[in-house]
Amino acid sequence: MSGSTYGQLFQISTWGESHGEATGVVIDGCPAGLPLSARDIQPFLDRRRPGVSPAVSSRQEADQVQILSGVFNGYTTGTPISLLIPNTDTRPEEYEQMKHCFRPGHADFSFQQKYGIRDHRGGGRSSGRETAARVAAGAVASLLLKEFGISITAFTRALGPIHLPEGEEDFAFLPRSPVSLPHEGLSSKALLLLQENRKKKDSCGGVVECHVRGLMAGLGQPVFQKLDALLSHAILSIGGIKGIEFGLGFAASSLLGSQYNDCFFADNGRIHKSSNHGGGILGGISDGDLLLFRAAVKPTPSIGLPQDTVTQTGENTVLSISGRHDPSIVPRVVSVVEAMTALTLADLLLLHASSRLDALKKIYNASFQDSF
Amino acid sequence: MSGSTYGQLFQISTWGESHGEATGVVIDGCPAGLPLSARDIQPFLDRRRPGVSPAVSSRQEADQVQILSGVFNGYTTGTPISLLIPNTDTRPEEYEQMKHCFRPGHADFSFQQKYGIRDHRGGGRSSGRETAARVAAGAVASLLLKEFGISITAFTRALGPIHLPEGEEDFAFLPRSPVSLPHEGLSSKALLLLQENRKKKDSCGGVVECHVRGLMAGLGQPVFQKLDALLSHAILSIGGIKGIEFGLGFAASSLLGSQYNDCFFADNGRIHKSSNHGGGILGGISDGDLLLFRAAVKPTPSIGLPQDTVTQTGENTVLSISGRHDPSIVPRVVSVVEAMTALTLADLLLLHASSRLDALKKIYNASFQDSF
Amino acid sequence: MSGSTYGQLFQISTWGESHGEATGVVIDGCPAGLPLSARDIQPFLDRRRPGVSPAVSSRQEADQVQILSGVFNGYTTGTPISLLIPNTDTRPEEYEQMKHCFRPGHADFSFQQKYGIRDHRGGGRSSGRETAARVAAGAVASLLLKEFGISITAFTRALGPIHLPEGEEDFAFLPRSPVSLPHEGLSSKALLLLQENRKKKDSCGGVVECHVRGLMAGLGQPVFQKLDALLSHAILSIGGIKGIEFGLGFAASSLLGSQYNDCFFADNGRIHKSSNHGGGILGGISDGDLLLFRAAVKPTPSIGLPQDTVTQTGENTVLSISGRHDPSIVPRVVSVVEAMTALTLADLLLLHASSRLDALKKIYNASFQDSF
Amino acid sequence: MSGSTYGQLFQISTWGESHGEATGVVIDGCPAGLPLSARDIQPFLDRRRPGVSPAVSSRQEADQVQILSGVFNGYTTGTPISLLIPNTDTRPEEYEQMKHCFRPGHADFSFQQKYGIRDHRGGGRSSGRETAARVAAGAVASLLLKEFGISITAFTRALGPIHLPEGEEDFAFLPRSPVSLPHEGLSSKALLLLQENRKKKDSCGGVVECHVRGLMAGLGQPVFQKLDALLSHAILSIGGIKGIEFGLGFAASSLLGSQYNDCFFADNGRIHKSSNHGGGILGGISDGDLLLFRAAVKPTPSIGLPQDTVTQTGENTVLSISGRHDPSIVPRVVSVVEAMTALTLADLLLLHASSRLDALKKIYNASFQDSF
Question: B329 with B297: CB under 8 angstroms?
Fold first, then answer.
């Protein structure tokens, strides 16, 4: 499987550079029979797109998704779904400066070392622009999961020094927060912080948290396709993410087993856990509880302040980046985290369908019929 | 790719249950011409195996690896290498108690939900015993990497409340530490802590850190096969790992871009970075600097203290686990982290070989010849 | 890997329906540094496209390929290459008739059984139209192979009762034959046959043969990725192909070992074979000789003559297909056979690069440099 | 996916050399809940194994399979099934002669070119011995298919000049034929032919035909994972197979569409076809009819007659092969064809389970339950 392909049964292949003509994705493996139209996908892209608040870059991309294949009469047909999002506000000329030098914190240097050639315009393939395709594909995955009662919510747990204490989330406010922070007061503070960063020509990082509700027990494959392993793969594949933790995460490392273990109890014929320190995963398989993880986001590497760097020919120089950039990518990463989570879960849901003989027999007896 | 398979070109398939006859792995894709014998692999397994210190379980497994295929006259042949490690100290009878109830923190419940059947003997496939096969395969990967000057060192950064401050590592001491903690004083303290845990019938977690030296720039594939994405996948696939972070990791989330970015400078015709906050990765591709990450390890779920749980038929009960278990898996996880890192890097090294036309031409001109 | 994805390192994902807006392909894994433009790809599509002779369907598709990503300043960058071919001459209304009944010999029935839904317009995804994307991707693969001196030529060995005897090929004539038959006299006869078929509202099949020159020894992976296994997979994935044979193929089954074996001999320090009954493959690995195989093509299933069939609701009916169809797909399949062969060989060439330690060391010593 | 791995969901990794200690396979992805024991697998191996008739090599391998993992209390658990078959009658010394020269028709030369090293003992990995692992894995696949009413029968259609006419098959006799030829008279003739070949120190090829009964419609994935494409891949991966054809196969190439097309008709509420020229496949997807294909087997390359060849250092020489070899591999290939067919169909059956939303919902509603 090549580098821009993700998933085994619900498989996506994304393509596109920051300042190319378009970006897009081919989804291969979406089950037939899912109701789907561009209108269903668009809201997911709208959440991700820049230009909608002072919190983000001023690049104005409409991000209008087109479905080029795989849907017929309003339903998926089981064949590849090709989604295309034209780039409409490219300004490659703004990147002339980067043509000959390596931006600190960006992939310019490592791409050059790897390939001996790079599209310098806004980072080319390594730009955050490629996440539009992920979000479009993730929308389809989310719609599939919704059919099974599974819903995903990611949000800003921390932005720079601002931290939303556990238990104080106001999820009803979340859709109105321009920084995806579900707390009215802290959201306002965060917005001010971003404006201040922009003025100072600097940037900041943060922490994104993700909750999945309605997940059935049993998703994830031992040994190497554990649910947490695959989610980590998915989330760390997002540019700017430097860490992930599940449930209590790193805090678990200083607890005793007797403090950390989630005990089981039965109540009214159903099995429950007394706590959810493990974040809804046991032995790499979902246990049916709330799935919970957090991801660390580094500060946007593009800053207006002067930075030391070197040219492609190895001379020392100083660079001030003047393009259109986000003072923090955290608010936008939220939708990408949801997308990657949806893609991973959709894939595991399909994989799980073949894990048991009794379940398979049910499918073949009930849904498919041979005819000769 | 199924659940117990990992890697694309340097691919492994592991198998085996805790109390089955043996555990093993098939390595498919190791290049031909690597010197290899069981003696080369054994030291890696010796580091992982239980029964060598008071820090670990008293289960006595010799972990003697056998090479059943793929090696001829002392060299790999390019065909699958089958490694087998017999289980010699199984005591399935000790697990009768677990047959009918779910151990908290273990995969018993989720496996049962997933498959409708489970091998209850010591956790079956979900036991840490499966990591012996990973370590054996990782040894081969490590030997391959060594041919390219790449070396991997993982160690205990923290064990319960004991934390090794950055900069105080004494790597010369590491091989003598029974808890893989490269600091004589803290290592002794850690050993005492483990003995205390055992007495209290409790367990503790910790943090494992991993360093890779000698890595060339260019490993990792954009977008979904980023070096950090694949390493996260690999490390989180180890049982008991609840988080990972690269470079500054979660700490990056509260820094400014101007503080976090690693600036470049040229010196004597070579390009350097002024810091390594990113942990040796830029845009998901190795930058040639020290690769550095940390993993959070949860406390061993098996503890002697009584815990609330439920039986398979849904009745409440209390369980005290009396098997042979590690008071902390941290010391043993160290070798597994190294193994998974080696497997990931070996795979990316092979993948990278086909990334550039100029490099490919060099191979085909120099090494291979057609003959008709 | 999902159904519309092919290849491991040189990986393609095709998409598109016969009467959708466009068809296309994402190539992920093409090495960086290959000179590439739409002009380089277009000639391959021109050979495949309908509407250029009385031998083919009257559907007029310009098949103008667009490169949407992965190429910068005239060279591939190592990132996904997205190719798009608009559909310009769709007439879905012509297929209203097929909406409710199953065309004999087509995938209508099996798609309906599989997915419970189907795009009936010209067969949707099962139409030969999808091969445009294959040919576009195959063009890139061919250009890559050309860099290594490898060239592929497929041609019509037989069309209905017309058979080109071995040894009478006139390859210089091939580019001028509208039926891809490298023999002037037989080509004219074949063209007449096709016109006659059209008049009779019937169709015919044939045999396509493929030769690969300049192939180095060593391509193909034992055991399941044998060169002939992968080529068979590739060629049988083309709609309408019902068989494949390598070298002497089925004729080998009635020979003695002493007649069939290709003996080796050395001459002037090079190793040769006295014959090439095996078609350039030994043990599933190329031996450096001419690679040769033949594929059986069934008659075009769409015919104007009335045929018995059933409606989707299970009533007997009679169907005469009036759309724009090829009297034989053989002439067009030739370019698809070349494309699939190129894709398979490009993939194996990349895979082979990581098969030997000595070769890998050469790459890493010569082409890549670490910098810290 | 590496060279010795096959399948996507029902995935196998085989290993082992002709004269190594053992051969084996890891099956990863077999659904949980399938009744399985070594006794269930053994009969499949017994059919394949040499030494049971004058028709085959005199090498005496017991081929006793051991199950090392993945089965608990008589049922598969969903985790990897490791099967091991010890080699008991190896005589590597008999192959000293081949150490320095290339056997015509074998993989010696191409392996040497590919890897720069080869296990010369009986062909090492390229020996037919590796098919024991395929047959063991195929047995598990067959047992899985049996749960769905699917059965596979392969047989000798032709052996050298002896050809079993269509319609004269006596399948009741098949189990008693030492050459897997379902016709008492022709079977006797075939046995005489093989004895004669042995006397003449020569060998012969043949044709194996395979029938699958009880297959539901809908298996196979468009475009590149077509049922016939995958079966071709599977069958051509068997050493010595030089061609495959489905239904009428190559004969289709000289028919008219009106002759070839299988027409549909409805009878008593069920849909039937008036003929089965396509071999049970429409558009690469099973149509529910009898699946039928034929494979061409080349003559055994190992013959006692003197053959011209070259040494590894490039000198001309003459070689007479004196090892224990089959006068024809056809009788033994029959069981390998069945195994590869079973593996392919089992994989597609699992893949198909996730193709439709309605079917998936059925699984998740009926079989799996979340618990929190």
Answer: yes
Q: Give tens-digit pLDDT for A89-102.
A: 777 777 777 788 99
Distance between CA atoms of A114 and C28, rounded to whole angstroms? 16
Q: What is the pLDDT of residues A110-153, one digit of tens each?
A: 999 999 999 998 889 999 999 999 999 999 999 999 999 999 99
Q: Shortest Cα distance from A332 to chain C (angstroms)? A: 24
- Could you identify the residue written with the tokens 């989720």? B110
Taking only residues 80 to 109 of chain B, the set having a beta carbon closer than 8 angstroms to any beta carbon of chain C reads none
Exposure b/e, C92-126, CB count within 10 A at least 16 = b? eebbeebeebbbbbbbbbbbbbbbbbbbbbbbbbb
Higher pLDDT, A66 or D54: A66
Quick one: which H or E segment has residue A140? helix A131-146
The DSSP string of B268-322 is TTEEEES--TT-SEETTEE-SS-EEEEEEEPPPS--SS-EEEEBTTS-EEEE---
- Residue A223, preceding bond cis, omega within 30 degrees? yes
Nearest beta carbon to residue B31 from set C8, C147, C357: C357
Read out DSSP for C326-342? Answer: -S-SHHHHHHHHHHHHH
**Between chains, do A359 and D368 touch, taking CB under 8 Å as contact?**
yes
Q: How confident is the model at residue C54 (pLDDT cuts 50, 70, 90)?
A: low
Q: Where are the domains of chain C?
A: 5-366
Both tokens of D22, joined, read 């053992």
Residue B315: how many other CB atoms lie within 10 Å: 11
The average pLDDT across B310-330 equals 88
For residue B326, pLDDT over 90 is answered with no
Q: Give contacts of D123 with chain C, Cβ < 8 Å.
A: 283
Q: With a cut of 90, say whether residue A44 has pLDDT above it.
A: yes
The more confident residue out of D269 and C152 is C152
Q: Is the dihedral of CA B219, B222, B227, B230 positive or negative?
A: negative
B contact chains, 3+ CB pairs < 8 A: A, C, D
The domain defined by C5-366 folds into Chorismate synthase, AroC fold (3.60.150)
Handedness of CA A167, A171, A175, A176 (dihedral sign): negative
**Do A161 and A299 contact (CB within 8 A), yes or no?**
no
Compute the distance between CA of residue D209 and CA of residue D166 in angstroms, rounded to an integer.
Answer: 11
What is the reported pTM? 0.97
C364 in A contact zone (CB under 8 Å):
no
Comparing CB atoms, the residue among C13, C17, C73 nearest residue A13 is C13
Query: How far, in whole angstroms, is CA B267 from its chain's centroid?
Result: 36
Per-residue pLDDT, averaged over C294-311, amounts to 96
Rounded to an integer, what distance in angstroms lies between the CA atom of residue A186 and that of residue A174?
11
Phi, psi at residue D288, to the nearest 5°? 95, -5
Using an 8 Å Cβ cutoff, are A42 and A64 in contact?
yes
End-to-end Cα separation, chain C, in angstroms? 37
Within 294-353 of C, beta carbons closer than 8 Å to A belong to none
Strand partners, D182: none
Q: List binding-site positions of A for FMN.
A: 125-127, 283, 298-302, 324
The verdict on a CB contact (< 8 Å) between A288 and D372 is: yes
